[in-house]
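In the design runs reported in the main text, the only information available to the sequence generator was the tokenized backbone. The following block is the verbatim input for one such run; it is reproduced so that readers can re-run the procedure and compare outputs position by position.
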């Protein structure tokens, strides 16, 4: 009796903690993973190197890098001459200045293109519950709306009967839960980068929102944080 071939999946891979965990989850669920990393002009470009290392370590079937320079639009501390906030606790009642206008819509659209080319019906991204309270494009309504869009905006969906599914397996998990899940799946978090404002040496600043969330997640998980911090 012949075995069914493993289904392909398209995975958005930033090089951060969350996307690395999502790649590990997709692989554990039996998908052949085709990863996409986007250089969108982010100031924390060290994550691009991390994405390459993570894709190789977690056995991605392919890994593409694509450049779309969102600095031409600006409007975010990650792509414009706006200071990255330090030593502030995340405020879920407001959209933070590190929100990049329409970023996830752009990135998921590119991932959808990759999915259509490799024949994948399943898209994976690392949106999670810590983020969606502040970032509008990490909320469940966005995920659901994009899935509906995918099924009418593509030849595969509108003409060939493909039913696209957008998976955000971390959506309702805390950072500590994400870390524990990733470690159980063999993720090497020393390969990942999360800092929004890294030092020229590559060390994480330890003070931005991303660093604070990462530090707290490892502490709450009861696991040593492998990140190299500048301070």
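Verbatim output:
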């Amino acid at each position: 009796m012949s075995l069914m071939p493993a289904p392909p999946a398209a995975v958005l891979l930033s090089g951060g903690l969350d996307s690395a965990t999502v790649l590990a989850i997709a692989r554990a669920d039996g998908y052949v993973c085709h990863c996409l990393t986007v250089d969108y002009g982010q100031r924390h470009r060290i994550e691009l190197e991390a994405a390459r290392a993570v894709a190789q370590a977690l056995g991605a079937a392919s890994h593409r890098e694509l450049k779309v320079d969102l600095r031409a639009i600006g409007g975010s501390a990650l792509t414009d001459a706006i200071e990255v906030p330090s030593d502030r606790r995340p405020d879920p009642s407001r959209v933070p200045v590190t929100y990049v206008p329409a970023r996830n819509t752009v990135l998921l659209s590119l991932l959808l293109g990759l999915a259509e080319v490799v024949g994948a019906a399943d898209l994976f991204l690392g949106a999670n519950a810590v983020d969606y309270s502040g970032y509008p494009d990490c909320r469940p309504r966005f995920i659901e709306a994009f899935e509906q869009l995918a099924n009418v905006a593509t030849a595969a969906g509108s003409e060939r009967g493909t039913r696209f599914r957008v998976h955000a397996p971390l959506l309702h998990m805390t950072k500590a839960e994400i870390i524990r899940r990733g470690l159980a799946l063999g993720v090497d978090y020393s390969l990942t980068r999360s800092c929004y404002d890294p030092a020229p040496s590559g060390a994480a600043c330890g003070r931005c929102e991303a660093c604070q969330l990462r530090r707290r997640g490892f502490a709450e998980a009861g696991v040593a944080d492998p990140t190299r911090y500048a301070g």
